[in-house]
UniProtKB/TrEMBL annotation:
Gene Ontology annotations of biological process type: phosphorelay signal transduction system; regulation of DNA-templated transcription
Main localization, broad class: cytoplasm
GO CC terms: cytoplasm
The name this protein goes by in its record: Two-component system response regulator GlrR
Length: 454
């Protein structure tokens, strides 16, 4: 593999010709890639959330879902995942249609393996790549604990946009970790050696917010006993994170817009402006589109801030992360304390997974802390969790009630929770093993892929 190619790059190879699948997989493995194979589009879709490839390489003509249909499905759920199409039917219309729809690369069979490798390397660069050092690969996102495909897709987009200087708007419910994502973007950006300054716009009184953001001169108002540079100047060269931007007063919005346009701030009570080089990452749980329509948020500022939008999923949309987060929080809370709590009972964990979590990750931390503080046994029982939640937990949706796509996602999440244990997964899904295996076969899901790799 070329020295510029990131180490441990993961490729998903899709083809219904088993001999070709084997040969190409072998050559790519020898070239230094980690390769997973699928013999159909449906099987590929079931493997993506678990294998998490950096590039998908798919045959165009396959039984059932063809390469372009697979590309459409990949683009819908994993928009930053590059797809390379292979075909023995190298016609101009095929190539035009593939590139028109946004396929990254297109190769005709028989193809040159050096050309394929060149396309893979180019796709890895476009898709964000994989750093050669596996530790550095996770350093930028070290505070974000997840194995959720939904959140992983957001992180992939975040890593891509971090390389630019475009302003970013992070949307998400309260408690979903918007500031953690902003900090991760800062660590992955070229401004990582400079300041990351965070301010909650809803926590500063309206009379003081301009002074906090833009600074003030001595004597500008009662109590201004000295010059104050403000947060824009404090973040010069780095990133200013404006949390709850939807709560910013309209008068301050106008002044913020002028700062973004002119790249200069004028402190309150000052005459001269000061140049600043600041990238803005903002966040909100509010519907800014509705606020713009109602005249509560400036439209011109909205478009300045919303160059790129990242939408964080709620905790109930990433239930597979609940056991990970609960165990992590328990470790954090009990570290260097006298609490002799080892974990949650199976029933207690099931109740945590089933709950709707309106307060998201922040609420989960509070519940775990409450159960640890009041624990009288090494394993926290379900009754203690229910007491902390102070209400009966919601039930997980049944497989019968879901459609095909939702059913596949449901099964994948259960296998993730049980780490590939089919017996435990079938019990959690309230199906016997025979029925569950039929579901696995219908969706082309291999439980072995969900087992932890040592």
């Amino acid at each position: 593999m070329n020295s510029d190619t990131p180490a441990k790059a993961k490729l998903l190879l899709v083809d219904d010709e088993h001999d070709l699948l084997h040969v190409v997989s072998l050559r790519l493995s020898v070239a230094g890639y980690e390769v997973e194979t699928a013999s159909s589009g449906a099987e590929a879709l079931s493997k993506i959330p678990v294998f998490r490839p950096h590039v998908v390489i798919s045959d165009l003509r396959m039984e059932g879902m063809d390469g372009l249909a697979l590309f459409d499905a990949v683009t819908r759920d994993w928009p930053t995942l590059p797809v390379i199409i292979l075909t023995a039917h190298g016609t101009i219309p095929d190539a035009v249609e593939a590139t028109r729809r946004g396929v990254f690369g297109y190769l005709s069979k028989p193809f040159n393996h050096k050309e394929m490798q060149a396309q893979i390397e180019a796709a890895l660069k476009v898709g964000g790549g994989v750093p050669a050092d596996a530790e550095s690969n996770g350093a930028w996102r070290r505070a974000i604990i997840t194995r959720s495909p939904a959140l992983e897709a957001v992180l992939a987009e975040a890593r891509l946009v971090a390389r630019s200087d475009a302003n970013i708007l992070i949307r998400g419910q309260s408690g979903t970790g918007k500031e953690l994502l902003a900090q991760a973007i800062h660590r992955a950006s070229q401004r990582s050696s400079q300041a990351f300054v965070a301010v909650n716009c809803s926590a500063i009184p309206e009379a003081l917010i301009e002074s906090e953001l833009f600074g003030h001169r001595k004597g500008a108002f009662t109590g201004a006993t000295h010059d104050h540079p403000g947060l824009f100047q404090a973040a010069d060269g780095g990133i200013l994170f404006l949390d709850e931007i939807g709560d910013m007063p309209l008068a301050t919005q106008a002044k913020l817009l002028r700062v973004l346009q002119e790249r200069q701030v004028r402190p309150v009570g000052g005459v001269d402006s000061v140049g600043v080089d600041v990238r803005i990452v903002s966040a909100t749980h509010r519907d800014l589109d509705a606020m713009v329509a109602q005249g509560q948020f400036r439209e011109d500022l909205y478009y300045r801030l919303n160059v790129v939008t990242l939408a964080l999923p709620s905790l109930c949309e990433r239930r597979e992360d609940i056991p990970l987060l609960a165990r992590h929080f328990l470790d954090v809370i009990t570290q260097n304390t006298a609490y002799d709590v080892k974990g949650f009972s199976p029933d207690a964990m099931a109740r945590l997974i089933a709950y709707d979590w309106p307060g998201n990750v922040r609420q989960l931390f509070n519940v775990v802390e409450r159960t640890v503080v009041l624990a009288t046994t090494a394993l926290i029982p379900a009754s203690q969790v229910e007491r902390a939640l102070d209400e009966a937990p919601a039930e997980l949706p049944s497989l019968v009630e879901t459609r095909e796509q939702a059913e596949r996602e449901y099964i994948s999440r259960i296998l993730t929770l049980t780490e590939g244990n089919v017996t435990a997964a079938a019990k959690l899904a309230k199906r016997n093993r025979t029925e569950f295996y039929k579901l696995l076969n219908r969706h082309h899901i291999d439980p072995a892929l969900f087992k932890k790799r040592r």
